[in-house]
Design brief:
Elements lengths: L20 H17 L7 H14 L4 H7 L6 H6 L5 H19 L6
């Protein structure tokens, strides 16, 4: 999360709105050729969400927390009766994911 911002990807430092998703999609598209030269296949933002969700499962994050991390709508009954925001649980899950990713960067030689 950007320091002092409400969102992980705010529109500006300390921003109160999220970054326009089109900017992320365009940014990934612009980098595809450079990544291909490094042996990274083309991917979409949705692929990153899928990778995160799978990784959270591997890290033993409870499914209902992992789904909330991705901001998926909850099933009708639990979504109706469970209005807790799970902020601390989501933060813990994302900290686990962050530590996992940081560990991966130590394994990959820089080019």
């Amino acid at each position: 999360m950007a320091e002092g911002a409400r969102f992980v990807l705010p529109d500006e430092p300390g921003g109160t709105k999220t970054l326009d998703p089109k900017l992320l999609t365009r940014g990934v598209a612009r980098c595809q050729a450079r990544m291909k030269k490094k042996g990274i296949d083309n991917f979409t933002l949705h692929d990153l969400r899928r990778t995160c969700r799978t990784g959270l499962a591997r890290l033993k994050v409870a499914p209902h927390i992992a789904e909330r991390v991705l901001n998926h709508v909850q099933e009708k009954i639990s979504g109706t009766y469970d209005t807790h925001d799970y902020l601390e649980e989501k933060r813990e899950a994302l900290n686990k994911w962050s530590a996992h990713l940081a560990g991966l960067t130590n394994l990959v030689p820089t080019v």
